[in-house]
Design goal:
With 391 residues, the chain is α/β, with parallel strands linked by helices. It has helices at residues 3-16, 33-37, 62-77, 91-103, 120-128, 154-168, 199-217, 230-233, 240-254, 269-281, 301-308, 320-335, 370-375, 382-387; strands at 51-56, 81-86, 108-111, 133-136, 148-152, 187-191, 221-222, 263-265, 293-294, 314-317, 357-360, 363-366. It is built from 14 helices and 12 strands. The chain starts with a helix and ends with a helix. It binds beta-D-glucopyranose (BGC).
Length: 391
Amino acid sequence: MARKLWAVRGLAALATGAMALSLAACGGGGAGGAGAGGAGGAPAQAEEGGLVGVAMPTETSERWIADGDAVQSGLEKAGYDVDLQFAGDDIPTQQQQVDQMITKGAKALIIAAIDGTALQSQLDAAAAEGIPVISYDRLIRDSKNVDFYVSFDNYQVGVQQGTSLLTGLGLLDENGEKAADAPKGPLNVELFAGSPDDNNAGFFFDGAMSVIQPYIDDKTIVVPSKQTDFDTVATLRWEQERAQKRMEDLLTSSYNGGEEVDGVLSPYDGLSRGIITALQNEGYGKGDKAMPIITGQDAEIASVKLIDDGVQYSTIFKDTRLLAEQAVTATQDFLSGKEPEANNTTDYDNGVKVVPSYLLDSVIVDKDNIKSALVDTGYWTEEEVASGQAD
Ligand code: BGC
Protein backbone atom coordinates (compact mmCIF):
# COMPACT_ATOMS: atom_id res chain seq x y z
CA MET A 1 0.00 0.00 0.00
CA ALA A 2 1.27 3.39 0.94
CA ARG A 3 4.73 2.30 1.94
CA LYS A 4 6.58 4.03 -0.86
CA LEU A 5 4.29 6.98 -0.81
CA TRP A 6 4.79 7.48 2.88
CA ALA A 7 8.52 7.31 2.55
CA VAL A 8 8.32 10.13 0.04
CA ARG A 9 5.83 12.02 2.15
CA GLY A 10 7.98 11.56 5.18
CA LEU A 11 10.94 13.00 3.37
CA ALA A 12 8.96 15.95 2.13
CA ALA A 13 7.68 16.63 5.60
CA LEU A 14 11.11 16.31 7.09
CA ALA A 15 12.56 18.62 4.49
CA THR A 16 9.91 21.26 4.95
CA GLY A 17 9.54 20.97 8.70
CA ALA A 18 11.38 23.23 11.01
CA MET A 19 13.36 20.25 12.08
CA ALA A 20 16.78 21.39 11.01
CA LEU A 21 18.24 17.97 10.69
CA SER A 22 21.59 19.47 11.22
CA LEU A 23 23.55 16.28 11.18
CA ALA A 24 24.38 17.15 14.71
CA ALA A 25 26.19 13.88 15.05
CA CYS A 26 29.72 14.93 14.50
CA GLY A 27 33.00 14.47 16.27
CA GLY A 28 34.30 11.20 17.63
CA GLY A 29 33.88 9.24 20.80
CA GLY A 30 31.29 6.92 22.25
CA ALA A 31 27.66 7.65 21.73
CA GLY A 32 24.60 7.08 23.77
CA GLY A 33 26.00 7.62 27.24
CA ALA A 34 23.98 10.73 27.86
CA GLY A 35 20.84 8.95 26.87
CA ALA A 36 20.79 5.72 28.70
CA GLY A 37 23.05 6.80 31.46
CA GLY A 38 21.26 10.08 31.95
CA ALA A 39 23.03 12.95 33.61
CA GLY A 40 26.10 12.50 35.65
CA GLY A 41 28.58 10.66 33.45
CA ALA A 42 31.23 12.26 31.29
CA PRO A 43 29.61 14.18 28.44
CA ALA A 44 29.05 11.81 25.57
CA GLN A 45 30.38 12.66 22.19
CA ALA A 46 28.77 11.70 18.97
CA GLU A 47 29.86 9.32 16.32
CA GLU A 48 28.78 9.80 12.78
CA GLY A 49 26.01 7.56 11.60
CA GLY A 50 25.60 4.13 13.06
CA LEU A 51 22.63 1.84 13.43
CA VAL A 52 19.32 2.87 14.98
CA GLY A 53 16.71 0.21 15.79
CA VAL A 54 13.09 1.13 15.15
CA ALA A 55 10.50 -1.28 16.57
CA MET A 56 6.88 -0.77 15.45
CA PRO A 57 3.93 -2.84 16.68
CA THR A 58 2.10 -3.93 13.54
CA GLU A 59 1.59 -3.45 9.86
CA THR A 60 -2.14 -4.09 10.04
CA SER A 61 -2.79 -0.43 10.79
CA GLU A 62 -1.73 2.09 8.23
CA ARG A 63 -0.54 4.60 10.80
CA TRP A 64 2.30 2.39 12.05
CA ILE A 65 3.52 1.78 8.52
CA ALA A 66 3.53 5.53 7.99
CA ASP A 67 5.32 6.08 11.28
CA GLY A 68 7.94 3.44 10.48
CA ASP A 69 8.60 4.83 7.04
CA ALA A 70 8.79 8.43 8.22
CA VAL A 71 11.17 7.60 11.08
CA GLN A 72 13.31 5.51 8.77
CA SER A 73 13.61 8.16 6.07
CA GLY A 74 14.32 10.88 8.63
CA LEU A 75 17.07 8.84 10.25
CA GLU A 76 18.58 7.87 6.92
CA LYS A 77 18.57 11.48 5.84
CA ALA A 78 20.45 12.28 9.04
CA GLY A 79 23.08 9.72 8.15
CA TYR A 80 22.02 6.70 10.21
CA ASP A 81 21.44 3.12 9.17
CA VAL A 82 18.07 1.84 10.24
CA ASP A 83 16.81 -1.54 11.34
CA LEU A 84 13.01 -1.12 11.04
CA GLN A 85 10.90 -4.01 12.33
CA PHE A 86 7.18 -4.63 12.66
CA ALA A 87 6.07 -7.27 15.14
CA GLY A 88 2.65 -8.34 13.87
CA ASP A 89 1.17 -7.35 17.25
CA ASP A 90 2.94 -10.33 18.80
CA ILE A 91 4.75 -9.57 22.06
CA PRO A 92 7.47 -12.29 21.88
CA THR A 93 8.24 -11.21 18.31
CA GLN A 94 8.76 -7.62 19.43
CA GLN A 95 10.93 -8.72 22.34
CA GLN A 96 13.07 -10.78 19.99
CA GLN A 97 13.33 -7.94 17.48
CA VAL A 98 14.57 -5.53 20.12
CA ASP A 99 17.03 -8.12 21.45
CA GLN A 100 18.39 -8.51 17.93
CA MET A 101 18.71 -4.77 17.41
CA ILE A 102 20.89 -4.63 20.51
CA THR A 103 22.94 -7.61 19.32
CA LYS A 104 23.43 -5.95 15.94
CA GLY A 105 24.95 -2.95 17.69
CA ALA A 106 22.16 -0.38 17.57
CA LYS A 107 23.29 2.91 19.07
CA ALA A 108 19.75 4.05 19.87
CA LEU A 109 16.31 2.43 20.00
CA ILE A 110 12.97 3.93 19.02
CA ILE A 111 10.18 1.67 20.23
CA ALA A 112 6.40 1.74 19.86
CA ALA A 113 5.51 -1.08 22.25
CA ILE A 114 2.72 -3.60 21.76
CA ASP A 115 2.40 -4.24 25.47
CA GLY A 116 3.87 -1.33 27.39
CA THR A 117 4.91 -3.57 30.27
CA ALA A 118 6.61 -6.37 28.37
CA LEU A 119 10.00 -4.95 27.45
CA GLN A 120 11.84 -4.63 30.76
CA SER A 121 14.56 -7.16 30.07
CA GLN A 122 15.23 -5.63 26.63
CA LEU A 123 15.50 -2.19 28.21
CA ASP A 124 17.82 -3.47 30.91
CA ALA A 125 20.07 -4.91 28.20
CA ALA A 126 19.97 -1.60 26.31
CA ALA A 127 20.91 0.34 29.43
CA ALA A 128 23.79 -2.01 30.11
CA GLU A 129 25.14 -1.14 26.66
CA GLY A 130 24.53 2.60 27.11
CA ILE A 131 21.87 2.63 24.39
CA PRO A 132 19.30 5.43 24.74
CA VAL A 133 15.68 4.34 24.43
CA ILE A 134 13.00 6.57 22.99
CA SER A 135 9.47 5.43 23.68
CA TYR A 136 7.48 6.19 20.55
CA ASP A 137 3.82 7.22 20.84
CA ARG A 138 3.07 4.59 23.51
CA LEU A 139 4.79 4.87 26.86
CA ILE A 140 6.91 1.88 27.89
CA ARG A 141 6.04 1.14 31.51
CA ASP A 142 7.71 -0.27 34.59
CA SER A 143 11.30 0.42 33.57
CA LYS A 144 13.71 3.13 34.60
CA ASN A 145 15.53 2.66 31.32
CA VAL A 146 13.21 4.74 29.19
CA ASP A 147 15.03 7.94 28.34
CA PHE A 148 12.48 9.98 26.43
CA TYR A 149 8.90 9.83 25.22
CA VAL A 150 7.55 11.36 22.02
CA SER A 151 3.80 11.33 21.57
CA PHE A 152 0.68 13.41 21.22
CA ASP A 153 -1.22 14.89 24.13
CA ASN A 154 -3.13 11.67 24.64
CA TYR A 155 -5.56 12.96 27.26
CA GLN A 156 -6.41 15.83 24.93
CA VAL A 157 -7.00 13.34 22.09
CA GLY A 158 -9.62 11.75 24.34
CA VAL A 159 -11.14 15.12 25.18
CA GLN A 160 -11.38 15.80 21.45
CA GLN A 161 -13.07 12.44 20.84
CA GLY A 162 -15.60 13.11 23.58
CA THR A 163 -16.18 16.67 22.44
CA SER A 164 -16.71 15.56 18.87
CA LEU A 165 -19.23 12.93 19.98
CA LEU A 166 -21.15 15.60 21.90
CA THR A 167 -21.02 17.95 18.92
CA GLY A 168 -22.29 15.26 16.58
CA LEU A 169 -25.13 14.50 18.98
CA GLY A 170 -26.10 18.18 18.87
CA LEU A 171 -25.27 18.79 22.53
CA LEU A 172 -22.41 21.20 21.80
CA ASP A 173 -22.20 23.83 19.10
CA GLU A 174 -19.22 24.30 16.80
CA ASN A 175 -17.51 26.48 19.44
CA GLY A 176 -17.74 23.74 22.04
CA GLU A 177 -20.47 25.62 23.92
CA LYS A 178 -23.72 24.03 25.05
CA ALA A 179 -25.94 24.11 21.95
CA ALA A 180 -28.95 26.40 22.21
CA ASP A 181 -31.25 23.82 20.63
CA ALA A 182 -29.63 20.79 22.29
CA PRO A 183 -31.78 17.64 22.38
CA LYS A 184 -33.08 16.82 25.86
CA GLY A 185 -32.33 13.14 25.44
CA PRO A 186 -32.02 10.57 26.67
CA LEU A 187 -29.57 9.75 23.89
CA ASN A 188 -28.33 6.15 23.64
CA VAL A 189 -24.55 5.96 23.56
CA GLU A 190 -22.15 3.01 23.75
CA LEU A 191 -18.51 3.30 24.78
CA PHE A 192 -15.40 1.60 23.41
CA ALA A 193 -11.81 1.91 24.61
CA GLY A 194 -8.49 0.74 23.20
CA SER A 195 -6.13 -2.03 24.23
CA PRO A 196 -5.69 -2.29 28.00
CA ASP A 197 -1.97 -3.01 27.68
CA ASP A 198 -1.45 0.24 25.75
CA ASN A 199 -0.78 3.10 28.15
CA ASN A 200 -2.48 5.50 25.72
CA ALA A 201 -5.83 3.74 25.88
CA GLY A 202 -6.54 4.89 29.44
CA PHE A 203 -5.59 8.47 28.60
CA PHE A 204 -7.95 8.47 25.60
CA PHE A 205 -10.81 7.03 27.63
CA ASP A 206 -10.31 9.29 30.64
CA GLY A 207 -10.07 12.35 28.42
CA ALA A 208 -13.26 11.42 26.57
CA MET A 209 -15.16 10.60 29.76
CA SER A 210 -14.13 13.89 31.33
CA VAL A 211 -16.48 15.61 28.89
CA ILE A 212 -19.10 12.85 28.44
CA GLN A 213 -19.64 11.91 32.11
CA PRO A 214 -21.56 15.09 33.08
CA TYR A 215 -24.14 14.24 30.39
CA ILE A 216 -24.45 10.70 31.77
CA ASP A 217 -24.83 12.13 35.26
CA ASP A 218 -27.67 14.43 34.23
CA LYS A 219 -29.22 11.61 32.11
CA THR A 220 -29.02 13.47 28.79
CA ILE A 221 -26.94 10.47 27.73
CA VAL A 222 -27.66 6.91 28.78
CA VAL A 223 -25.57 3.82 28.13
CA PRO A 224 -28.19 1.09 27.62
CA SER A 225 -25.64 -1.73 28.00
CA LYS A 226 -24.54 -0.19 31.33
CA GLN A 227 -20.96 -1.01 30.26
CA THR A 228 -19.04 2.08 31.27
CA ASP A 229 -15.85 1.06 33.02
CA PHE A 230 -12.57 0.90 31.15
CA ASP A 231 -11.88 -2.80 31.67
CA THR A 232 -15.29 -3.78 30.30
CA VAL A 233 -15.21 -1.54 27.24
CA ALA A 234 -11.50 -2.05 26.36
CA THR A 235 -10.58 -3.78 23.09
CA LEU A 236 -7.53 -6.03 23.34
CA ARG A 237 -4.86 -5.30 20.67
CA TRP A 238 -7.15 -2.66 19.16
CA GLU A 239 -8.68 -5.40 16.98
CA GLN A 240 -11.38 -4.39 14.53
CA GLU A 241 -13.07 -7.82 14.63
CA ARG A 242 -13.23 -7.71 18.41
CA ALA A 243 -14.98 -4.33 18.29
CA GLN A 244 -17.40 -5.58 15.63
CA LYS A 245 -18.25 -8.60 17.75
CA ARG A 246 -18.79 -6.50 20.87
CA MET A 247 -21.06 -4.08 18.97
CA GLU A 248 -23.05 -7.05 17.60
CA ASP A 249 -23.43 -8.38 21.13
CA LEU A 250 -24.51 -4.99 22.43
CA LEU A 251 -27.15 -4.67 19.72
CA THR A 252 -28.51 -8.11 20.58
CA SER A 253 -28.49 -7.64 24.32
CA SER A 254 -29.44 -4.00 24.79
CA TYR A 255 -31.28 -2.84 21.66
CA ASN A 256 -33.77 -5.64 21.13
CA GLY A 257 -36.89 -3.68 22.01
CA GLY A 258 -36.83 -1.08 19.26
CA GLU A 259 -34.27 1.24 20.88
CA GLU A 260 -31.71 2.79 18.55
CA VAL A 261 -28.08 3.68 19.07
CA ASP A 262 -27.48 7.44 18.79
CA GLY A 263 -23.74 7.56 19.36
CA VAL A 264 -20.65 5.42 19.81
CA LEU A 265 -17.41 6.58 21.40
CA SER A 266 -14.72 4.80 19.41
CA PRO A 267 -11.04 5.53 20.09
CA TYR A 268 -9.55 4.36 16.77
CA ASP A 269 -10.66 4.25 13.13
CA GLY A 270 -10.09 0.51 12.79
CA LEU A 271 -12.48 -0.13 15.67
CA SER A 272 -14.93 2.37 14.20
CA ARG A 273 -15.02 0.39 10.97
CA GLY A 274 -15.82 -2.80 12.88
CA ILE A 275 -18.56 -0.98 14.79
CA ILE A 276 -19.97 0.44 11.55
CA THR A 277 -20.10 -3.02 9.97
CA ALA A 278 -22.04 -4.37 12.95
CA LEU A 279 -24.48 -1.47 12.75
CA GLN A 280 -24.91 -1.72 8.99
CA ASN A 281 -25.68 -5.42 9.33
CA GLU A 282 -28.56 -4.40 11.59
CA GLY A 283 -29.92 -1.90 9.07
CA TYR A 284 -28.39 1.31 10.40
CA GLY A 285 -27.64 3.87 7.71
CA LYS A 286 -30.62 2.78 5.61
CA GLY A 287 -34.03 4.40 5.37
CA ASP A 288 -34.86 6.37 8.49
CA LYS A 289 -32.54 4.31 10.72
CA ALA A 290 -29.72 6.82 10.86
CA MET A 291 -26.13 5.81 11.42
CA PRO A 292 -25.15 6.88 14.95
CA ILE A 293 -22.51 9.51 15.60
CA ILE A 294 -19.23 7.54 15.63
CA THR A 295 -15.81 8.93 16.50
CA GLY A 296 -12.35 7.60 15.64
CA GLN A 297 -8.64 8.31 15.56
CA ASP A 298 -5.73 8.34 13.10
CA ALA A 299 -7.40 9.67 9.94
CA GLU A 300 -6.94 6.32 8.20
CA ILE A 301 -7.86 6.72 4.57
CA ALA A 302 -10.72 4.20 4.56
CA SER A 303 -12.27 6.07 7.48
CA VAL A 304 -11.68 9.50 5.98
CA LYS A 305 -13.76 8.33 3.03
CA LEU A 306 -16.45 7.09 5.43
CA ILE A 307 -16.45 10.54 7.04
CA ASP A 308 -16.65 12.20 3.65
CA ASP A 309 -19.57 9.90 2.81
CA GLY A 310 -21.34 10.80 6.08
CA VAL A 311 -21.06 7.29 7.55
CA GLN A 312 -18.47 7.92 10.31
CA TYR A 313 -18.78 11.28 12.06
CA SER A 314 -15.20 12.20 12.93
CA THR A 315 -11.63 11.14 13.53
CA ILE A 316 -8.65 12.65 15.30
CA PHE A 317 -5.76 13.58 13.05
CA LYS A 318 -2.33 13.04 14.55
CA ASP A 319 0.32 14.05 12.06
CA THR A 320 2.70 11.11 12.27
CA ARG A 321 5.20 13.00 10.10
CA LEU A 322 5.73 15.46 12.94
CA LEU A 323 6.00 12.67 15.49
CA ALA A 324 8.66 10.98 13.39
CA GLU A 325 10.57 14.27 13.24
CA GLN A 326 10.56 14.48 17.01
CA ALA A 327 11.86 10.94 17.33
CA VAL A 328 14.67 11.67 14.88
CA THR A 329 15.57 14.90 16.65
CA ALA A 330 15.64 13.17 20.03
CA THR A 331 17.85 10.42 18.60
CA GLN A 332 20.27 12.95 17.20
CA ASP A 333 20.35 14.80 20.49
CA PHE A 334 21.12 11.68 22.49
CA LEU A 335 23.78 10.58 20.05
CA SER A 336 25.47 13.94 20.21
CA GLY A 337 25.44 14.01 23.98
CA LYS A 338 22.50 16.36 24.51
CA GLU A 339 19.28 15.86 26.43
CA PRO A 340 16.37 16.28 24.01
CA GLU A 341 14.01 19.16 24.70
CA ALA A 342 10.91 18.08 26.63
CA ASN A 343 7.67 20.05 26.78
CA ASN A 344 6.09 17.89 29.47
CA THR A 345 7.89 16.59 32.53
CA THR A 346 4.91 15.82 34.74
CA ASP A 347 2.25 13.66 33.11
CA TYR A 348 3.90 10.46 31.93
CA ASP A 349 4.82 8.43 34.96
CA ASN A 350 5.62 4.93 33.73
CA GLY A 351 5.31 3.37 37.16
CA VAL A 352 8.98 3.83 37.97
CA LYS A 353 9.72 7.38 36.90
CA VAL A 354 8.24 10.35 35.13
CA VAL A 355 9.57 10.14 31.60
CA PRO A 356 10.47 13.48 29.99
CA SER A 357 8.14 13.88 27.06
CA TYR A 358 7.60 15.87 23.91
CA LEU A 359 3.87 16.00 23.14
CA LEU A 360 2.29 17.18 19.91
CA ASP A 361 -1.19 18.52 19.25
CA SER A 362 -3.97 16.73 17.42
CA VAL A 363 -6.93 17.97 15.41
CA ILE A 364 -10.59 16.90 15.26
CA VAL A 365 -11.53 16.14 11.65
CA ASP A 366 -15.11 15.87 10.46
CA LYS A 367 -16.68 16.22 7.03
CA ASP A 368 -16.21 20.00 7.09
CA ASN A 369 -12.43 20.16 7.48
CA ILE A 370 -11.16 17.09 5.62
CA LYS A 371 -9.79 19.39 2.96
CA SER A 372 -8.04 21.93 5.19
CA ALA A 373 -6.71 19.41 7.73
CA LEU A 374 -5.79 16.45 5.55
CA VAL A 375 -5.65 17.43 1.89
CA ASP A 376 -4.13 20.91 2.10
CA THR A 377 -1.45 19.59 4.48
CA GLY A 378 -0.46 16.89 2.00
CA TYR A 379 -1.49 14.01 4.27
CA TRP A 380 -3.98 12.60 1.76
CA THR A 381 -4.84 13.66 -1.77
CA GLU A 382 -8.37 14.43 -2.91
CA GLU A 383 -8.25 11.29 -5.06
CA GLU A 384 -7.32 9.15 -2.09
CA VAL A 385 -10.17 10.60 -0.03
CA ALA A 386 -12.57 9.93 -2.89
CA SER A 387 -11.42 6.32 -3.37
CA GLY A 388 -10.75 5.52 0.28
CA GLN A 389 -7.41 4.01 -0.70
CA ALA A 390 -3.85 5.20 -0.46
CA ASP A 391 -2.10 5.49 -3.83
C1 BGC B 1 -2.08 5.14 19.13
C2 BGC B 1 -3.26 5.45 18.28
C3 BGC B 1 -3.71 4.21 17.53
C4 BGC B 1 -3.80 3.01 18.43
C5 BGC B 1 -4.07 1.74 17.65
C6 BGC B 1 -2.37 3.97 20.01
O1 BGC B 1 -1.30 3.71 20.84
O2 BGC B 1 -1.74 6.28 19.90
O3 BGC B 1 -2.94 6.47 17.37
O4 BGC B 1 -4.98 4.44 16.99
O5 BGC B 1 -2.63 2.85 19.17
O6 BGC B 1 -3.03 1.46 16.78
